[in-house]
């Protein structure tokens, strides 16, 4: 991307600024701007506890995708017609986006020794219909509709010219950053490869170059064989506590078949993936009394590069502690329970039967 001297920050949109030392990109979300005084008192999460005040209670005219319990997909409300009243998942544009579509892809702007690009991309909200029922309390069939929505939006946004990476995230609970209690995920398509993903790709490529094998496949084979850290397993997916867990009760869910791209998950694998996700979140919910957590999907970028060495997966990070000076100063995270003990505890959690409830 060509560079140009531009000492003034982009004010109308968000922008990505590159750390001159690490090379990492950070987002300055001017489109979601807050005043300095807004940070003095921490905002209390858990807004909209009453469903009558919840902004996600009704189907939006701006819906990009609607999925009903009958698993019918509608791109627009006018296509859905009367059937839209049975919606279970809707995907809508974020009203306060960190990234916004534009006609031209961003070019690098230079301010002295610094570099930045405009925050071009897409920011969507994936809303589940039940107001007071988290993913942990949904049926496998319902969670299958959710992961289907993830896949459909991935497929739609992957070909976009300015997009290099598509990220799905889900925040649950006060400590996770969730500002609305109504269950919802977010999909963010951005014009750069995120630092954490870049490091994951580099590690995967390094292992492949040295051993001509997928590092994640090697992890899956070892964990499935030893069972020390396995929390849940079915024919298609495995969930385990990573050997070097960054946080207490961290969980990763992998497909057993090697695939770099999440959006290429076969139709027959959607329900097994949903089962693995629902089960792991359920044992966290009942075992740790509904902790806050974040989960996100790591997948190959969409920039046209060669990533056959990579293996997509979903990571769940419960908010069981707060970073202190050591973590911030070194980047080394401290987990206060051995992954083997965390997995053993979660395997022992007795789950109550799920009732089939209408949204």
Automatic annotation (TrEMBL):
The active site is at 184 (tele-ump-histidine intermediate). Residues 14-194 form the Galactose-1-phosphate uridyl transferase N-terminal domain. Keywords: Carbohydrate metabolism, Nucleotidyltransferase, Transferase. The keyword Transferase applies. One of its GO terms (biological process) is galactose metabolic process. GO terms for molecular function: UDP-glucose:hexose-1-phosphate uridylyltransferase activity; zinc ion binding. This is DUF4921 family protein. Pfam families: GalP_UDP_transf, HIT. Residues 229-314 form the HIT domain. Gene3D superfamilies: HIT-like (3.30.428.10). It comes from the Bacteria.
């Amino acid at each position: 991307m060509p560079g140009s001297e531009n000492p003034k920050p982009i004010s109308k949109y968000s922008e990505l600024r590159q750390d001159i030392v690490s090379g990492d990109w950070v987002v300055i979300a001017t489109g979601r701007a807050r005043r300095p005084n807004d940070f003095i008192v921490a905002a209390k999460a858990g807004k909209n506890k009453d469903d009558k005040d919840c902004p996600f209670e009704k189907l939006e005219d701006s819906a990009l995708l609607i999925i009903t319990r009958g698993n019918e997909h509608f791109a627009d409300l006018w296509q859905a017609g009367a059937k839209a009243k049975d919606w279970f998942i809707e995907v809508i544009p974020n009203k306060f986006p960190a990234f916004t579509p534009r006609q031209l892809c961003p070019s690098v702007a230079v301010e002295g020794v610094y570099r930045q690009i405009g925050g071009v991309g897409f920011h969507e909200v994936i809303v589940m219909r039940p107001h007071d029922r988290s993913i942990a309390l949904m049926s496998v069939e319902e969670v299958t509709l959710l992961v289907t929505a993830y896949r459909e939006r991935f497929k739609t946004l992957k070909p976009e010219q300015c997009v290099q990476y598509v990220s799905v995230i889900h925040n649950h609970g006060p400590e996770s950053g969730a500002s609305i209690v109504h269950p919802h995920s977010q999909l963010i398509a951005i014009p750069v490869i995120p630092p954490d993903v870049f490091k994951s790709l580099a590690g995967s490529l390094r292992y492949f170059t040295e051993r001509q094998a997928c590092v994640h496949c090697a992890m899956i084979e070892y964990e499935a064989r030893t069972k020390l850290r396995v929390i849940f397993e079915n024919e298609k997916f495995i969930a385990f506590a990573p050997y070097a867990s960054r946080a207490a009760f961290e969980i990763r869910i992998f497909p057993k078949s090697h695939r770099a791209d999440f959006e290429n998950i076969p139709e027959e694998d959607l329900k097994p993936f949903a089962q693995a996700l629902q089960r792991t979140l359920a044992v966290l919910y009942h075992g740790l009394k509904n902790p806050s957590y974040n989960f996100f999907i790591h997948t190959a970028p969409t920039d046209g590069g060669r990533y056959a060495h990579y293996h997509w997966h979903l990571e769940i990070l419960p908010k069981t502690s707060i970073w202190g000076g050591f973590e911030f100063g070194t980047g080394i995270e401290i987990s206060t329970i051995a992954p083997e003990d965390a997995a053993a505890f979660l395997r022992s959690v007795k789950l109550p039967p799920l009732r089939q409830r209408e949204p």
